[in-house]
Amino acid sequence: MFGKILIANRGEIAIRVIRACEELGIKTVAVYSELDRDALHVKRADEAYLIGPAEAAKSYLNVDKIVEVVKESGAEAVHPGYGFLSENAAFVQRLEDEGITFIGPPASAIDSMGSKTKARDLMKKAGVPIVPGTTESVDTYEEALRIAKDEIGYPVAVKAASGGGGKGFRVALTEDKLKAAYEGASREGEKFFSDGTVYLERYLPNPRHVEVQVLADKHGNVIHLGERDCSIQRRHQKLIEEAPAPSWFVDDELRAKIGEIGINAAKAVDYVGAGTIEGMLQDGEYFFLEMNTRVQVEHCVTEAVTGIDIVKQGIKAAAGLELDYKQEDVQLRGHAIECRINAESAPMNFAPTPGAIGEYLEPSGPGVRVDSGVGAGGIVSPQYDPMVAKLIVWDVDREQATARMLRALSEYKIEGLTTLIPFHSTILATENWAKASTCSELVEDKEWLKSTAPEIPVVPIDQDDDETVVRDYQVEVSGKRFDVKVHGAAFGPVGTVAAGASGGSGGGKKKRSERKKSAGGGADDLPSPIQGNMWKVVAKEGQEVAEGDLICIIEAMKMENEITAHKAGTITTLAAKEGEPINTGDLIATIKSAEAAAE
User: Fold this and answer.
1) Does position 427 have pLDDT exceeding 90, yes or no?
2) What is the mean pLDDT of the chain?
3) DSSP per residue over 298-322, as a string?
4) Is 576:552 a contact under the CB 8 Å cutoff?
5) Does 219 share its domain with 188?
6) Phi-psi region of 496 (alpha: psi -120 to 50; beta: other; left: phi over 0)
7) I want to staple 28 with a disulfide (CB 3.0 to 4.6 A). Which of 45, 206, 471, 528 is the partner?
8) Neighbours of 206 (CB within 10 A)
9) CATH code, 198
10) 193 with 229, same domain?
C-alpha cells in the first residue's frame, strides 16, 4: 500500500479522498491555489503546497507544478478526484513516465474513452449498443447538415468529441437550429477540452439517464455495483441522483444486462479502478452513452446501497491489490438519494451565485451523509465549480428516503448564499418525483422554477466593501408586510429562501458610484444577472431585437449562460465587451422600444 498520496483537486472530493486515505493509514498531500489558502482540504491534509494563482489553468491544471510537488513531497501516487486532470491522458502518461502511480485507469483507457467518437466506435465493435449516430467526427457545418437530413433526422444532438459533464452538448430540434448547435458544441469543446471536433447522435427526447458503477483491478477482475438513475438534470448536468433506479423502470433482468454492458466496456479498454458507464434508457432499450474514467460525483449513492467504499477500492486497485469483492458479494439494500447543493439560483435559470458563506450548519441524524468542502466563513468562487456540498440520504425504500431527504434539507443552513436547497425541497415534494418522472417538464418550465423561490429575501454577505450601502425590502411574514433596510450588502439581484434554507446572490465588488453608472436601474437597461467573464457578444449596437433574442454569453463557474433581451426594441447602448470580466448588476445593454428610440 502507498505511504503517501497527493490529491490533485480541491473542495469536497479532496476531503473525500483524504478521509479514505486516513482510514487506510496513508499520509496525504494537498495542493491549493492562492484563492484556496484557507480551504478545508488544505487544513485537513498532512501537508499542503501552493501551486499557483486562482485561475485553474495556472494551478490545478498546471501539470509541471503538480509533478514538481509530487517529487518534493515524496508522494508515491496521485489521486485526481473528478474534473480538472482526472481524465487527462497526457497527464497520466506524464506520471507513468516519471514513475508516479496514477490512481485510476491507464492513459490508454482514458484516451480510448476520452474521445466520444473513439469510444462509440470501440463499444460498437465490442457489441455494446450505442445511440444511433456518427462514429467519426463531423468536420463542417455543411457535413452536419447533410448527415442530419439524410441519415439521422431531427431532433439531433451535437456533441463535442472530448466533451463531458454536460459541456459541449447542444440539441437542434429543427434544421434552422442546427448551425447554432454545431457552433456552440464546437466552441465549448475547444474551450473546456481543447478539442473543437464534434459528432452527431440521434437525440432521445426524454430518456432516463441510467449509469452503472464498475470496479476493476490489475488482475483482470471486473465487477459492477448496480445502477444509478441520474435523470433529473438541467443543461445536461445532474441535479439529483438515486440508487438503484426506480423499480418500475429497471428490474432485475435489465439490471443484469446493464451490469454486463458495463463490465464488457471496462474489459474492452483494460480498465483499472473506479469508473462509470453512462447510458440512456428509452422505452426499455438501453444505449451506451459514454464512459467516465474516474470516480463520479454521485458515487456516494452507490456506496450507500452496497456498503462498498468505492474510493478505497480504487486506491487499492492502483496499488496492485485485488478487489475486496466478487460479483456475488454485491447486494443492493434500500434506496439512496443525492442532492447537489450548488451555489445557483433555480428561479434565475440556474444562474451561478458565487459569494461568501456566513453561518453554516449541516444536517445530521440517521441515514444522512454530507460531503462538503466548505464551512462558515468560506467562499464559493466564480473561478471554480458551483458545488457547495452533496447531501446523501439512505432509507429502506424510495418513499422513505424521499421523506428523509426532505427532513435533511429543512435542517441545512447556509447563510448569505443562494443555493439549490429550495429547489430540491420543492421538486422532491411533487407528484412528478413520486412517480419517478424525469421532471424535465418542471426543470425546463421557467414559471414553475419561479415557484422554487421562497418568500424571505436574504442578501449576500459583503466582506470587504468599505462603503455602507442601503437596500430597501418589503418582507411578508404571517400575512403582514414589514419594511426592512439592509446595510453593507452589494448591489445586484437578490435570491430568496425558505425558513431553514439558504438565500442571497453573489455580487461583484464595485464602489457605489460605479454601480450606479453600470446598473442603470431603468426598465430599458439590461443588467448582468451574474458575475463572470463575457465569453461572446452576439448582438450589435443599433440592432433591433425581439424579446428573448440572444444578446451575449457569460461564462461563470464552468457554465455558459445565455443572456437574452428582456424586451423588444433597439439596442441603443451595448456596454458588454468580449473577454472582459463582468459583475452582477453591470450594464450589458440598453434596449429602447421603437417609440422611445424614435424620440
Assistant:
1) yes
2) 86
3) THHHHHHHH---HHHHHHHHHTTPP
4) yes
5) no
6) beta
7) 45
8) 10
9) 3.30.1490.20
10) no
- Report the number of secondary-structure helices (H) and strands (E) in the chain: 18, 34
Could you tell me if residue 117 is inside a domain?
Answer: no
Record the pTM: 0.79
- 75 shares its domain with 149: no
Residue 127 Cα to chain centre, angstroms: 31
Distances (CA, A) of 100 to 5, 62, 228: 10, 16, 32
CATH code: domain of residue 522? 2.40.50.100
Grid cell, residue 160, equals 463535442
Q: Cα–Cα distance between 384 and 370 in angstroms, integer?
A: 20
For residue 184, which of 194, 176, 172 has the smallest C-alpha distance? 172
Q: Which three cell numbers stand for residue 126?
A: 465490442
Side-chain half-sphere CA neighbours of 367 within 13 A: 23
Provide the grid cell at 259. 451490469
- Residue that has been written with the C-alpha cell 444562474 in this structure: 351
Compute the distance between CA of residue 143 and CA of residue 63 in angstroms, rounded to an integer: 36
Residues 271-327 pLDDT 10s: 999 999 999 998 888 998 889 999 999 999 999 999 999 999 999 999 999 999 999
Q: Are residues 521 and 464 in the same domain?
A: no
| pLDDT, mean of residues 464-468 | 41
Containing domain of residue 477, as a range?
A: 456-497
- Going 366 to 370 to 371 to 374, the CA torsion angle's sign is negative
Residue whose C-alpha is closest to residue 159's, from 119, 125, 122: 119
**Residues 182, 246: one domain?**
no
DSSP string, 438-486: --HHHHT-HHHHHTTS-SEE-PPB-SS--S--EEEEEEEETTEEEEEEE
- What would the pLDDT profile of 473-485 be if each residue is shown by its tens digit? 444 444 445 444 4
Same domain assignment for residues 441 and 466: no
Instruction: Please check whether residue 490 lies inside any domain of the structure.
Output: yes
Q: Are 393 and 367 in contact (CB under 8 A)?
A: yes
The domain tally of the chain equals 5
* Residue 124 maps to a domain: no
Asked whether residue 195 falls in the same domain as residue 96, the answer is no
> Torsions phi, psi of 90, nearest 5?
-65, -40
Q: 343, 501, 265, 404: which is closest to 12 by C-alpha?
A: 343
